[in-house]
Amino acid sequence: MKNKYELLAPAGSFETLNAAVNAGADAVYFGLKHFSMRHNAKNFTIKDLDKINKICGKKVKKYLTLNTIIYEGELKSLEETIKKIKGKVDAIICWDLSVIKLCKKYKIPFHVSTQASISNSESAKFYKKLGAERIVLARELNLKQIKEIKNKTKISLEAFCHGAMCVAVSGRCFMSQHLFGRSANRGMCTQPCRRQYTITDSEGRQLNVEPHTIMSAKDLCTLPFIEKLKDAGITSFKIEGRNRDARYVDAVVKIYRKALDKKLNKKEIENLIKELKKVYTKGFSSGFYLGTPTSDDFSNVEHSSATHKKEFLGKITHYYPKASVGTVYINTGKISVGDNIIITGKTTGIEKMKIERLEIKKKSVSLAKKGEEVGIKFPFRVRKNDDVYVVKENK
């Protein structure tokens, strides 16, 4: 590992995979179409692994998540999957003992998932004795507890440093299964905890709960105290977000890359927090690291409170590499000189720029709108069918 601390980024699609690699991640974690805790992410197939390896090269490690509950009828399929991925990933993140047994059988390194809720040194030693190279700690630990586990086990520890937090213990929740028949422990959570709720008594009288989002936690953000996480013995700093877009992954990876590479001063941290607030967030919390969360750690918004938002504009229709010029067909909205845009694609990942000039039919224009095809000079390589978004401030 080239860096002292590993920055581990989510990859739910080729767009986010490229974004993570280009932003400076040391490793990425991703799921396959089956056995993934993020069923709604685009995920990958076994055939995609060769392409993933090409994108990551030798500098970025690849961790495959096989961390769902495994049922009896899936054991044969599970073994076939593990046989096929041997030699194509650096480790498997898992917690079901059937997966661990197969990793040992086929000599594939494995990390024990946070789903195992490892919260003490004896549990960590048990999995270490089984052959685990790394433990992904339970989310309910504070810094002192983490340091004690590290000192007593000397095993590589991974912990979440940023992203969504689940109201349930280490993400093991049955609410979605109970209400909608979609199990969170099978990667199909509908996130009913994020919704707004009103209490109704047996006679139909209603009581508004403030905030309405009484089970929706704020997002974890460890940037203000990341040096304490380093001191506690964390090896790998994990960003949650396999369902997030490339813009989110790009921004968060770049910011935490800076925080892991050097000690930031107070002003730098304040500026980077402002940048984090521009992408998806439900507000920030320190989680359990500094003490047990309080009512202040629950979000007062159902969706995102980001200060900036992206709006879909259209797609790249042509690109002329010699002139570094592309054309964009505007499907919706409008674009003006001075606007900030982002371009995302499976190969492109994510690129950002400010519009300095627009042309329609070789004539300079200040604005282009829905139904028009506009020419733009790009300072980077884009590709046909890449998506184009306008980034605007939320008011």
Name of the top-level CATH class of the largest domain:
Alpha Beta
Number of strands: 22
Helical content band: 25-40%
Could you describe the largest sheet, including whether it forms a barrel? Answer: 8 strands, parallel, barrel
Query: Overall 3D geometry?
Result: globular
- Helix count from the secondary structure assignment: 10
Give the DSSP E fraction (strand runs of 2 or more residues): 25-35%
CATH architecture of the largest domain: Alpha-Beta Barrel
Structural category is: alpha/beta
- CA gyration radius, whole angstroms: 22 Å
Question: What do you see in this structure?
Answer:
The strands form 5 sheets. Strands 1-2-3-4-5-6-7-11 form an 8-stranded parallel barrel, surrounded by 5 helices. Strands 17-16-22-13-14-21 form a 6-stranded antiparallel beta sheet. A two-stranded antiparallel ribbon has the order 8-9. The chain is of the alpha/beta class and 395 residues long. The longest helix has 16 residues. The chain folds into 2 domains: 276 residues, Alpha-Beta Barrel (TIM Barrel), CATH 3.20.20.70; 86 residues, Elongation Factor Tu (Ef-tu), domain 3.
In brief, what are we looking at here?
This protein is of the alpha/beta class. The protein is 25% helix and 26% strand.
Features:
25% helix; 6-stranded antiparallel beta sheet; 8-stranded parallel barrel; TIM Barrel; 22 strands; Elongation Factor Tu (Ef-tu), domain 3; 395 residues
